[in-house]
Protein: Serine phosphatase RsbU (Regulator of sigma subunit)
Organism: Sphaerimonospora thailandensis
Amino acid sequence: MGGGDDISRSTPIAVSSGGVDPSRDSDLARRLETRLAHTERLGNLGWARWGIGDGDADWSDQLYVIHRMDPADGPLDLERYRTIVHRDDLPVFDDAMAVLEEEDGPHEFEFRIRAGGAARLIVARAETIRDAAGSLVEVHAVLQDITDWRRTADQLAVVSQRLEEESQLTARLQDIILPVQDEPFTVPGLRVATRYDPAETAPLGGDWFQAIRMDNDEALLAVGDVAGHGLAAASAMAKLRHAITGLAFAHHEPDQILVALNRLLRRMRPDVLATAVVAHYRSTDRVLTWCHAGHPPMLLVRGDGVERLHHPGVLLGVFEDVEYTCASIRLEPDDLLLMFTDGLIERPGRDLFEGLDALSATITQTVRAAPRDRLSAIMNGLVPSNTSDDTCILVARVTPNTLEVS
């Protein structure tokens, strides 16, 4: 025991002409006894010595506390101790005693006792003392009351199971709201890959993406981020994502779509803010037209260069009446377009522009290392910089011609 070792190393032994100072030795013993008592109390454990066949027994003070007994009544010998063992646990207790008859130990076993009108769970660690003939003469044991510890552990297990079930339900709900295809898919003129990384602390988030085939030669791409996490953010996200699908098939332009989304958010969730970028792609002439609402810029990867495509616009949900304007660019075959939410670039202590610079450098290194399959290389190589925020990533490669479908 640590306290005893410290004393034995640090306490001087006073020697007089008559030998060891008995008062110093007695003081050491008292200090050791006090520390042992504190250890037993803090660990809710005590020791017992039981004689075999002679009814002899000796208990430490804490064992009386554990068994709700008066020390004046003295310890229970093994025969009487068996009478307070819970009847359902008598087979366990008897089997343990039988093992101790045959083997020296130490052995550990659990059983319940009746103490103070309530059941208490005891874990015992016991070993044996034998005479010269090998016959069992004493059992020495440390008994610990683990009732409260086990109750807490069981409660934690129940809570852990409930949290696991809730986590699984949340993941299924997130997948229903924002289904992610495992493999790249095709929309007119583009090969598209998507990914969603939930936040570590909140699996249900407000980030979303959409990639829609509008007709034979047009597609709509969008990525957005509803502020916050949890069911409220996911609910608002689902409303925006479903709305954009209907607006796209009604052949609205990106600026008109953002105006409609802003109006929807102001009417249905005036307490919520969101960002989004919406892009319309026409494969016949490879023209991309896009519009931003407070969202991080898209990145255009051409060769091994990276260009930011940004067109400022106010966040969704800030003002009642908002106008947005679009920008356009002609894409080239094998260009890559990267759309993402801020979880990919933001982290504590780093601003947006530093995050964009770091992302651009990562993309450049990635496409140089894997020039033949840049779409998969970029998608697999991007790592969110802030695991406390969810992240959506959409990467689209311009196919060499409008007939490519794989």
